[in-house]
Amino acid sequence: VKHVTWNADAAEKGGYEHFMLKEICEQPGAIKATMTSRILPGQPVKLDDIAFTEKEIKEIEKIYIVACGTAYHAGVVGKYVIEKMARIPVEVDIASEFRYRDPLLNDKTLLIAVSQSGETADTLAAMREAKSKGVKVMAITNVVGSSIAREADNVLYTWAGPEIAVASTKAYTTQLITMYILGLYFAQHRGTMTNEEIEAVKNDMLTLPEKAEKTLGHRETLQKFASNNYMHKNMFFLGRGIDYAVAMEGALKVKEISYIHSEAYAGGELKHGTIALIEEGTVVIALATQSRLYDKMISNIREVTTRGAKVLGLAVEGNNSIEKVAEAALYVPPVQDILIPVLAVIPLQLLAYYTAVQKGCDVDKPRNLAKSVTVE
Amino acid sequence: VKHVTWNADAAEKGGYEHFMLKEICEQPGAIKATMTSRILPGQPVKLDDIAFTEKEIKEIEKIYIVACGTAYHAGVVGKYVIEKMARIPVEVDIASEFRYRDPLLNDKTLLIAVSQSGETADTLAAMREAKSKGVKVMAITNVVGSSIAREADNVLYTWAGPEIAVASTKAYTTQLITMYILGLYFAQHRGTMTNEEIEAVKNDMLTLPEKAEKTLGHRETLQKFASNNYMHKNMFFLGRGIDYAVAMEGALKVKEISYIHSEAYAGGELKHGTIALIEEGTVVIALATQSRLYDKMISNIREVTTRGAKVLGLAVEGNNSIEKVAEAALYVPPVQDILIPVLAVIPLQLLAYYTAVQKGCDVDKPRNLAKSVTVE
User: Fold this and answer.
1) A256 touching B, CB under 8 A?
2) Contact A255 B233 (CB under 8 A)
3) What value does the mean pLDDT take over residues B142-159?
């Protein structure tokens, strides 16, 4: 068992109105802490708490990422990342579904359980179920010594510090960081990326804290957008590829704390049903951060604005042409496409936060929800 | 190229107020036509248009089911069915996502493209993309000679007859039937089920037309429920396991034709965010048809009724205890758990239909939607 020192001050609001805003703003530091010592330039990716043998890593034929809520959404990003970097097939599953699915498992399967608290009941049960069938299990958690950390064969900690607000923010972004680290680690051992490629990703990752800080600068714009739109009953988030994964997390944040029925869609699925819901004034948040999908998303934005939607676009700095189709746009600093979720989620967290504040909701303790779900 | 005779009358409404209601009511016959000659008792499952060699079937290591909209939801059921029956890992993907994902494919991969019209642009493109990489491709479609049918290596036709209403109903249930047929076919060739098990599923399948007819008898109850609830802005569908897959299709139907923002959730995920949206009077449709998940769903129903939700439960005849927690309940006739989606979806289709009628929507031609999406 390891011990981590969290000083008493860290659990205070430190000048912020809510823990959630404080935790959103702590993300640059949390991201940095989670990367530190693991991805030093010019050195192999190093994971202290991981005891895989070289042979075990090479033999992995399939990875299941199992989690609930926000951690599940980190897993959805993880699937893109690990499949792309390490070319290992990944299936992401909701823990309560995985448990009762009778999934295909064997000793070449790795299960990764993701849980901020390390105590999520369904995730823990899924992990135990898999372990009992001879599957190797690994935990990604924020709490040293938690049940999931103790029972897993391997643990990769997020170093987000204590997260008090019920709606998870810095736990999510640090979970994303662990996905990149794992992707690189497996790629390095399985030879699916060159050293140059690995170094390039690492170097870009090391710029994320500073770029996250810059992205937090959108606070005022989002506060204003929220004050103009908080009264809507519905909100839609659109994205393609890894942007779709981030859109899911954006929609969940809005649901959790502002009680607006928000939902994420894959851009290409709109025409297969959901577009029927778009009418004059419907608020749509459109993520268009992925270079090869940018033009497709611009078309999707056009489809919804034609039907009267009010679109807030999110793109990478320099792609200003989004303003031709969206009513308003926000930009994140450039970084490798696969790393963008770490930055793109920040405006979505802020949007949810300011919307909830504007509605007068209890931001840190939304109705009906508990911080960690330790019962089924 | 095969020819199929559709007489002119079949394209008329034949006494029904809308094509959609006519097509919902045609499901018993469509299901029967799709099974006929393929699953004769005591004989091996026979697929005329399938040219897999014994060796090819045994070598399949992974199946991708790729589709859009309702056909995608049939694929979600297909994953449960094929994994359970044939123990082949299945990944279901939205066609527009699959195309740009750079998925892991090889010559041991089978791609199944599902499309009622056989002309869905993204599905066709996904199929071509896979084929160009040496992947075997198979089509499930309702239209003989359609692009997807012509370009696939193998075709399994649904025999639903012409579907005119934009919102798909009988195409979906017949797509489910093809999933069972395929599951049994692969199981038979790979030896993952005994002959007795296969015969038992076939015998139960053959009772589906009659049981679907009986399930249509809920029309009046659903009409009444719709007239009491059509004014809501939101509606939620809950389910676990294969019920969750059916819940997704129920939510899509409501969205498409009644413009109510409806969404499906896995029962176990409620507590991880969505339950914040439940308030006094929120309408929840809860599917509790799966025997091993019944008690878990009863708990989930209790969670939402405690917060004021108005629950319509759906269970198998005999499981009347659902009435203790739900405000109202509907029942489907008993059949093997895995076959229940064919019956369970019918009340959801009827609910969407009567809700849209009550709202005065253009049921057969909902705003913004086209019957087959032949552009990206």
Assistant:
1) yes
2) no
3) 96
Q: Which of A163-172, B205-214, B362-371 is least confident?
A: B362-371
Give chain A positions within 8 Å (CB) of B87. Answer: 104
Q: What is the mean pLDDT of residues B92-113?
A: 93
Tokens 């993701």 — which residue? Answer: A114
Q: Which amino acid is at B255?
A: K
Q: Which residue of A has its CA nearest to B293?
A: A100
What is the rounded distance in angstroms from the CA atom of residue A347 to the CA atom of residue B256?
Answer: 30
The pLDDT-based confidence of B276 (bands split at 50, 70, 90) is confident
Q: Position of tokens 């908080």?
A: A230
Whether A100 and B240 lie within 8 Å, measured CB to CB = yes
Contact A275, A303 (CB under 8 A): yes
Residue found under tokens 């409501």: B254
pLDDT of A3 above 70: no
Residues B188-216 as b or e (16 or more Cβ within 10 Å = b): bbbebbeeeebbebbebbbebbebbbbbb
- The arrangement of strands across the sheet holding B261-266 comes to B261-266, B234-239, B283-288, B310-316, B328-332
* Least Cα separation, residue A37 to chain B (angstroms): 31
Torsion of CA A240, A246, A249, A251, to 10 degrees: -50
Question: Tell me, what's the pLDDT at B166?
Answer: 93
Q: What are phi and psi of B135, to 5 degrees?
A: -85, 140
Count of CB atoms situated within 10 Å of the CB of A102: 13
Starting at the earlier edge strand, list the strands of the sheet with A90-94: A90-94, A62-67, A109-115, A136-141, A154-157
pLDDT, mean of residues A223-249: 96
pLDDT digits (tens, 9 = 90+) for A102-138: 888 988 999 999 999 999 999 999 999 999 999 999 9
Q: How far is CA B281 from CA A24, A59, B206, B232, in A?
A: 34, 52, 40, 9
Residues of A with Cβ-Cβ distance to B271 under 8 angstroms = 369-370, 373
d(CA B306, CA B271): 13
Asked if A95 and B278 come within 8 Å (Cβ–Cβ), the reply is no
Cβ within 8 Å, pair B261-A69: no
- B230 Cβ under 8 Å from any chain A Cβ: no
* A142-146, A279-283, B50-54, B315-319: segment of lowest average pLDDT: B50-54
Integer Cα distance of B312 and B292 in angstroms: 20
Distance CA B339, CA B208 (A): 8
User: Do A312 and A285 form a contact (C-beta atoms < 8 A)?
Assistant: yes
Among B70, B276, B370, the residue with its CB nearest the CB of A259 is B276
Taking CB atoms and an 8 Å limit, are A244 and B293 in contact across chains? no
Q: According to the model, what pLDDT value does residue B306 have?
A: 94
How many C-beta atoms surround the C-beta of residue A330 within 10 A? 22
A370 reaches B (C-beta below 8 A): yes
**Would you call A276 and B94 a contact, using CB atoms and an 8 Å cutoff?**
no
The pTM assigned to this predicted structure is: 0.95
CB contacts under 8 A, A 98-117 vs B, are 100-104
Q: Which residues contact B191 (CB under 8 A, 6 or more apart)?
A: none
